[in-house]
Amino acid sequence: MIELFLTLAPDWALRHAAPLLVVIPMMCAPLCVFIPSGRIAWFISILASALSLFMALLLLAQVQTVPGGQISYELGGWEPPLGIEFAVDALNATILLLVAAFGVLAVVFSWPTVAAEVRAEKRAMFYGAYLVCFTGLAGVAITGDAFNMFVFLEISSIATYVLVALGASRDRRALPAAFNYLVMGTIGATFFVIGVGFLYAATGTLNMADIATRLPELEGSRTVQAAFAFIIVGLGLKAAMWPLHQWLPNAYAYSPSFVVVFLSATATKVALYALIRFLFTVFSPEFAFEGASFGMLFMPLGIAAMVVCSFQAVFQTDVRRTLAYSSVAQVGYMLLGLSLGTAIGLSAGLLHLVNHALMKGALFMAVAGVVLTYQGTTLRDFAGLGRSAPWTMTAFAIAALSLIGVPLTAGFQSKFALLVAVQDQGLWWAALLIVFASVLAVIYMGRIMEAVFFKPPHNPQKIHKEAPITILVPLWILALANLYFGIDASFPIGLADSAASAVLGGGS
Amino acid sequence: MNLFAINPGFVLILAGVVAAVLPFRQPRQWITIAAPILGLFMLINADQNLDLITIQALGLDLVLFRVDSLSFIFGLAFLIAALLNAIYALHTDDRVQDGSALIYAGAAVAATFVGDLMSLFIFWELTAIASVFLILKSGTKAAYGAAMRYLGIQILSGVLLLDGAAYYFKANGNLSLEAFSSLQDPGALLIFIAFGIKAAFPLLHNWLQDSYPKATIVGAVVLSAFTTKLAVYALARMFPGESSLIWIGAIMTVFPVFFAVIENDLRKVLAYSLNNQVGFMVCAIGVGTPLALNGAAAHAFAHIIYKGLLFMSIGAVMYRVGTSKASELGGLYKSMPLTAVFCLIGAASISAFPLFSGFVAKSLTMSAVASEGYIIIWGMLLFASAGVLEHSGIKIPYFAFFGHDSGKRVKEAPFNMLLAMGLASAICILIGLPIVAPGMGYEWLYSLLPYPVEAMKYEPFTAGHILTQMQLLIAAAFAFVLLQRISLYPPEKRGTILDTDWIYRKLGFGFASWAGTVWGKAGPAMTAVFAGLSARAYSRIEATFSPRGVLARGPLTGGMAIWTGALLGIVLLMSFLAS
């Protein structure tokens, strides 16, 4: 299968897959801006995302076949320590596949919601901003250069602020949400670049692999420790690590439907990837977890996120805010997994990262369908939708069950892996808290499902109907993926395991 | 594929799914009756002690069908109960109820025959999810609240089981259902608590009395058969001889007696007495000798039938009269004579009158406890036996069918209800008889027990057993008559009883809504205290977490910048201290 794929691919694509993955959407973005028609921009975006997905698949296939499991690409032919390097291993090949796959699904799904929520003259530019954001996220995931990572992080962030603000035509509160996100995101990015600056001062290099080789000599250096602190906090903010998550609920609740689908599945995931990359590759696990015992930092934060944000989700009246708080709680699960500092813990966290993208993507798509046909996101608006929009709501229910962690869904697989990883360290109380947070998830998703399936419609006069087919198809792809990966999880588990062993130095 | 190598529970679940979507009444009712019969046929022909149908799924080895003598008798009882329940439900036309009753029964049967913790967990949760509709379907607001509490607690039991399974998997590398030797292992303890919730251990029992009386008429009958007995099976499978179960079981038999005697709603009386009966089984499992385990299994089998019969008879009364409150019933034997007779048979069985099924089952447990020398426990069980007669043997039929005449003149129960009750009564009598012919009478039941050789040696109809039991029954009956005569017996009065559940209701998240049921239970003074406490607890949680709450207040950017700074400080401090 993999060999066939590699032999079918043209030679230029094989050799330049890494830069093409980033360059194609980057070049298509200005193209979109200059085109007057939103519909054509949509087609261009689909094309660019699909090409990127193809490149991501190629990269994954190459990583799995190349000896050593690592691909390095020198941009402009400059040698890595000086020039910028794109470095792909099993970890970021997985993240790239996730970003690209969700880019395609989200953009295919997007047209009806964008037509409804964004004014006609802005649609082309909207897609341009999306492509820039996509470029930035893919760039963060692919680059092997610390400063280059900052640049891509800013590219994606600035595009995200614009995308969130464009929700203003549906709900004016998108503007303060975007502004808050801008201020906080800038704080995070600044922290990150300060940390990178310190690292440069201490090591004299910006290439991440190079930094990693030079750090052991600098043991005990205050500069390196400060760099570490700034980078952790900066990336933690981007990844919505509790308590630095407060930009997220509003940004998710008021942005256009398409944006929230795309961001919920990719943005925090990419930031989390960057965090993992710095914790495990740049700074060694010995430094991060044994020397500085940062497991003791991430574990309480992860658990606090799980519990506190699940409670907050219970009390929300707006479905999108419920899901947004739940997202922060799920980030807590992932942090808990990686805070263990073990291979199975990291693997469980990564598995949850992938599965969470599957379920939250599906949930937000279903909500987008409701926003489109019913113009409402409160719990009352959802009452009785089970009868009038059965296809949309059944997919919603499947994803909700997955979020809760019901067996035979993807969410169960990752929660079970997490439980095993936590028990492996003897942390039975953490396991109990995972279970407790899952019960809270039963409550907050149960409230929504109860309204959907058991309550009469709040306003029977208001017409509501099934979401259009362009929404239903990607939605059901994700819902069925939730079921499929719940029964046969060998593909995502294989990805997560090889990613974990890649960053932990080959099979430890 | 060989039909007899399939877990009969799967057939029931499949049939239940079909029934739940089938809009036509007649074919659906044929399915609900045919599925348990097919299941019985499959079970009787299944290969005992050999079949280990294993599949690979979820990355684990799942054992989907394994029959041995322990699972056989529980599965058999579940399937018979499913058949009787289906007959009892024939007068209704309700897709959801038929479907969920069948899925629920199927899940319980399937859980009985699986051979690993993961499959057990899956069907454990399925019983919870399928059964909640039986409570929801009665449609009242109280039923809705009870259903949600029931679901929450049952799901909690499931996730604890899952957590324990994860721990067990980590420690042992497999998920096989083996008996634990002690509770030292945290995994074992978690599984123990999960089973304990479902078996309604003391202080974990309140969901039962809370939800069963609020279910539909058919729903209460169906619910009474499966959930707790599935937990009894699981305990017998994984914790036989666990000594703490002896005391748990003994306390479980004693304390519901007091509640049952003063309770007015007859279905709630039955729920308390269910609790008390399960206590006998739990105690026997704790003793753990072959005799005692035989007692637990025999008692479970007999109990499923006669408890179902009692719920059926009170359900029939409720169907005709519209209430199950003792204060509004009485004198119904004139208009519902057959129902009254069936109720008396059920009452005689649960009180362990000789020649009825309860006697041959309970004797095993009592003898096992006595022969192991647990004198105090034996005394507690004896007291509880007297209590059973008091509240189930006499109170139920007396207040419903005799006692002061309520003046209500209604029709006899529908034919299908009478048929189901008649069949259940026949089973109660047949397995209670002495050996009238080889393989008949109680010998039939004993030959199915987990240790048939020991069971066959046991002789229930000795002069000693019969005399002890009759003395007990007569003394208890005398006490009832005496107390009635001098008006000391708690009269059938409206009112509700405060059970221990307020303790953990207060701790739980949804306490404010739960507290609603506590309102009427306590006096006004108590109510004020509880209201204050609960409202404060709830508003504390809400004030912290809700959209208007503390965590969401304040200038967003400023607050978050401060958090960012604080976290940076912590991280810096940690890395400085570490080096």
Secondary-structure blueprint:
The complex is a heterodimer of chains A (508) and B (579).
Chain A: H1 2-8, H2 11-34, H3 38-65, E1 70-74, E2 85-89, H4 90-117, H5 123-142, H6 146-165, H7 174-203, H8 208-214, H9 222-238, H10 247-254, H11 257-282, H12 285-291, H13 295-315, H14 319-339, H15 343-374, H16 379-382, H17 385-388, H18 390-404, H19 410-424, H20 428-454, H21 469-487, H22 490-503
Antiparallel strand pairs in A: 1-2
Helix pairs in contact in A: 1-3, 2-3, 2-5, 3-4, 3-5, 4-5, 4-11, 4-15, 4-21, 4-22, 5-6, 5-11, 6-7, 6-11, 7-9, 7-10, 9-11, 10-11, 10-14, 11-15, 13-14, 13-20, 14-15, 14-20, 15-18, 15-19, 15-21, 15-22, 18-20, 18-21, 19-20, 19-21
Chain B: H1 8-21, H2 25-45, E1 53-57, E2 60-65, H3 69-88, H4 95-113, H5 117-136, H6 141-172, H7 186-199, H8 206-211, H9 217-238, H10 244-262, H11 266-287, H12 290-321, H13 337-350, H14 357-371, H15 375-401, H16 415-430, H17 442-447, H18 452-457, H19 463-485, H20 501-507, H21 511-519, H22 524-545, H23 556-578
Antiparallel strand pairs in B: 1-2
Structure description:
The complex is a heterodimer of chains A (508) and B (579). With 508 residues, chain A is mostly helical. Chain A contains 22 helices and two strands. Chain A has helices at 2-8, 11-34, 38-65, 90-117, 123-142, 146-165, 174-203, 208-214, 222-238, 247-254, 257-282, 285-291, 295-315, 319-339, 343-374, 379-382, 385-388, 390-404, 410-424, 428-454, 469-487, 490-503; strands at residues 70-74, 85-89. Chain A has a two-stranded antiparallel ribbon. In chain A, helix 6 (146-165) runs antiparallel to helix 11. The radius of gyration of chain A is 22 Å and the shape is globular. The model of chain A has no long low-confidence stretch (mean pLDDT 85). A two-stranded antiparallel ribbon of chain B has the order 1-2. Chain B is an all-alpha fold and 579 residues long. In chain B, helix 1 runs antiparallel to helix 2 and helix 12 packs antiparallel against helix 14 (357-371). Chain B folds into three domains: 1-239, no CATH class; 241-494, no CATH class; 530-579. At the A-B interface, helix 7, helix 9, helix 13, helix 19 and helix 20 of A face helix 5, helix 6, helix 22 and helix 23 of B.
